[in-house]
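During the reporting period, our protein records have gained a structure token line. One record among many is quoted in full directly below:
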Amino acid sequence: MIISVIGAGALGKTYGGLLALAGHEVHFLAHSEYEALHTAGSFDIRLKELNTTLTVKSFFIHKNPEDLPPSDLVIIALKTTANHAIKSLITHCITDSSIVLILQNGIGSEEWISQFTGKAPIVCGISFIGAYRDGIHLDISFLGNLKLAPFGEATIETCQWIVNAFQLAPIPLQITLHENYKEIRWQKLLWNIPFGALSIIFDLSTDILAQQEPYRTMVFDLMNEICVVAKAEGIIFEKPVQEQMVNYTAQAGDYFPTIHRDYHEGKPIEKEYMFDNVLAIAKQHGCIVPFLTLVDKQLQTLLLIPRTSRGK
């Protein structure tokens, strides 16, 4: 199988690396990671939970999207901050018989990217993973699970095809299939929005936010408002889902979300797809979300502060 991975960050290297170790021909399109990967010719996936290090050597690395081959599977693992350029990045590797797997946070990616994928079926992928990358080293504190759901004309069988591609990977992956892509997107937003926003505002790790007051209450308050918007979209989450998510985070150790690291490194944060789109949906349905609105305004204020004045 020929696979193109658009984006060689933590998600791209994790799943692309496992597919390469499963024996597939994997091509990475990289930007900031290109020189390190090209020079080393390999990268490590260090799995803390399993006390295991996997070295990925058999792969192709590209700097230009024109060099990507027509692919059976195209994995979009870019941050949504780069979605404005997605058309130019995927044109050369997507065919009508390709399957497109979108591994991104937030909501609205499938609707946007589907404009540029032709007849290729799209699968929504939601990854619950704790990973840090440093060039050719990838540290995974918890591998979590991967949720897949069809979008548009795709089917559950399309999702199963992706599951089959991972069968020969050297470690077992927890992959679950779902009928409704919006359900898994909103479920991830239940985590991303509270822990992402509050980690930036208070400069605290997710375990502290999940354990200590008043932060724990703030997390639940934001979750409750997200549930109101999700319900207006036909997606209902019961209270135990929130409690399980927060309690698991409390036990998962010292972790800072990617959005926190991006903020402190002066990079664009994924605000549009995680906050702006949710607030737009809330407005469309007439949902009242005062705390989410306040948190969004605080993020806007913090983003105006020059990088040199930030805490890290």
